[in-house]
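Lab channel / #folding
Pinned by the channel admin:
"Please post every new chain as: sequence first, then the structure tokens as a reply. Keep commentary short and put observations after the output so the thread stays searchable."

First post following the new format, from NK:
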Amino acid sequence: MQIPPEVTFRGMDHSDAMEAKIRERAEKLERFYDRIMSCRVVVEAPHRNHHKGKIYHVSLDVTVPGSELVVNRDPGANHAHEDPYVAIRDAFEAMERKLDAFANKKRREVKTHAEEGYARVTLVHPEQDFGMLESIDGRSIYFHRHAVKNQELEDIRSGEEVRFLEEMGEEGPQAIVVRVIGEEHPEK
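Reply from TO:
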């Protein structure tokens, strides 16, 4: 997180223990999306003139590049929220779901809008189901048999030109789509 979480208490005294719990939960939000810029949390006690149990309200405002995610639900008659820690837990769980959905949407956008690169095949091992490419900027890129779309791996030769889409794998860049280009291999 670029800016430390901002915690505000309204209609109640400041609680060091509650603030520590909030900061702990705020740090864990980065597991769901690692580009969080800021997080603001407001814990609000009910008005003093309520006749029934005090139901706490917690709102979260998380800023990420290009967007702002907010959890600001009226607890209504949820008596579990008479415990401020339960209200905090529920608000953070809702934000975790929002961040997870946001991150998934961003990943799909990146894959959808990825541009194909050009490369030359440098190595083919059909018996081991993989090959290697050299991109025009000199990088070595792994590809698996399943990434090849318009040929069989056995028919690809070193030196052939290909178009490819890549993503970062566990051991470096890998092509997730490989299409052989040239007169004898029309693109599909």
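NK: The mean pLDDT is 85.
TO: also worth noting, The chain has two domains: 6-112, 117-180.
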